[in-house]
C-alpha cells in the first residue's frame, strides 16, 4: 500500500495550485497550455507565472521552453492528480453531505484541499461510495492516480444534429453555474444541438427527456462550458438542480 502524505509533507500551496491549473488546462483540451492562459486562470501577471514556472522546472514538475507551451512531467502529473483528487472529493462531500449547491463548493475546496490529510480524503471517498465524478462531472482521480476516461466533446464544438447527455460543466465561474441551475441545465440532462445561429449568435438546443423537451437559445459562453457524451439520463445530482449521468450507486 502506498504511503499517505500529511499536509505538511506536500509541496507548497502555490506549487499545488500551479500544477493543478496546468493539468486542468491540459485535461480540458483547449489547446497548448500557455503562460497567458495560466495567468488568466490564476488571476496573476504573466511575469508571476514565468517566475513560478522556473521554480517548478527546478523541482522537476514541469517542462517549459521560453515562448513554448507548458507541460507537466510525470512527477508533476502525480502531484496534480493528488490535489485534484482532494479538491473534487471535497466538492462532492460538501454537496452530498453538507447541502452546498454546485456554485458554492469550488472556493471552499480550494482552501480545504491544502490542509486535509490523504487519510481524511480516503475516508470521504469510502463514505461516498468511491464516486467517479464530482458535482460538476469532473472525473475524480483514484488513489493510485488513474483517471476515468469518457468520450466527450464540448457542446460549442459539436455539429448541428448532435445529441447526447451533459456529463461535465466547467466550474470556474460561479455566476455561470447559478445561471445554468436557474435555467434547469445540468449534469445528466439530454441535449440536442438544433441550430447554430450565424455570426457568433446563440446556439438553439433542445433539452430534456422524451415528452418533456424544451427548445431554447444558449449563449456561446454557456455552450463552451458544457461537455456532452453519448448516453442516457440517469439520476438527480444533488446541489445542481439537474440530473447526473454518471453518478455511482450510493452504498446501501
Automatic annotation (TrEMBL):
Cellular component aspect of the GO annotation: cytoplasm
Protein name: Manganese transport regulator
Subunit and interaction comment: Homodimer.
Segments forming domain HTH dtxR-type: 12-73
Domain HTH arsR-type: 1-95
Upper taxonomic lineage: Bacteria, Bacillati, Actinomycetota, Actinomycetes, Streptosporangiales
Pfam families reported in the protein's UniProt record: Fe_dep_repr_C, Fe_dep_repress, FeoA
Region (Disordered): 231-252
Organism field: Streptomonospora litoralis
Chief location: cytoplasm
Keywords: Activator, Cytoplasm, DNA-binding, Iron, Manganese, Repressor, Transcription, Transcription regulation
PANTHER family membership: IRON (METAL) DEPENDENT REPRESSOR, DTXR FAMILY (PTHR33238), TRANSCRIPTIONAL REGULATOR MNTR (PTHR33238:SF11)
Gene Ontology molecular functions: DNA binding; DNA-binding transcription factor activity; protein dimerization activity; transition metal ion binding
UniProt key word Membrane: no
Cellular compartments annotated: Cytoplasm
Family that this chain belongs to: Belongs to the DtxR/MntR family.
Parts of the chain that traverse the membrane: none
UniProt entry tagged with the keyword tRNA-binding: no
Amino acid at each position: 500500500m502506498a504511503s499517505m502524505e500529511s499536509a505538511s509533507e506536500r509541496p507548497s500551496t502555490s506549487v499545488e495550485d500551479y500544477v493543478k491549473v496546468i493539468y486542468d488546462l491540459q485535461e480540458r483540451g483547449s489547446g497548448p497550455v500557455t503562460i497567458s492562459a495560466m495567468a488568466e486562470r490564476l488571476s496573476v501577471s504573466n511575469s508571476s507565472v514565468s517566475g513560478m514556472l522556473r521554480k517548478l522546472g527546478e523541482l522537476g514538475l514541469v517542462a517549459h521552453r521560453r515562448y513554448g507551451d507548458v507541460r507537466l512531467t510525470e512527477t508533476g502529473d502525480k502531484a496534480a492528480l493528488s490535489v485534484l483528487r482532494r479538491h473534487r472529493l471535497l466538492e462532492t462531500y460538501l454537496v452530498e453531505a453538507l447541502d452546498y449547491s454546485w456554485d458554492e463548493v469550488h472556493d471552499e475546496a480550494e482552501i480545504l484541499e491544502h490542509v486535509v490529510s490523504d487519510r481524511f480524503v480516503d475516508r470521504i471517498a469510502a463514505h461516498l461510495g468511491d464516486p467517479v465524478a464530482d458535482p460538476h462531472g469532473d472525473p475524480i482521480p483514484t488513489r493510485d492516480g488513474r483517471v476515468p476516461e469518457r468520450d466527450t466533446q464540448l457542446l460549442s464544438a459539436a455539429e448541428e444534429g448532435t445529441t447526447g447527455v451533459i456529463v461535465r460543466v466547467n466550474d470556474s465561474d460561479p455566476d455561470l453555474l447559478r445561471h445554468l441551475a436557474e435555467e434547469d441545465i445540468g449534469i445528466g440532462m439530454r441535449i440536442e444541438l438544433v441550430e447554430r445561429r450565424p455570426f457568433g449568435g446563440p446556439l438553439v438546443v433542445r433539452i430534456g427527456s422524451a415528452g418533456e423537451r424544451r427548445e431554447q437559445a444558449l449563449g456561446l459562453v454557456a455552450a463552451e462550458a458544457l461537455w456532452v457524451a453519448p448516453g442516457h439520463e440517469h439520476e438527480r445530482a444533488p446541489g445542481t438542480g439537474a440530473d447526473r449521468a454518471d453518478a455511482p450507486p450510493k452504498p446501501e
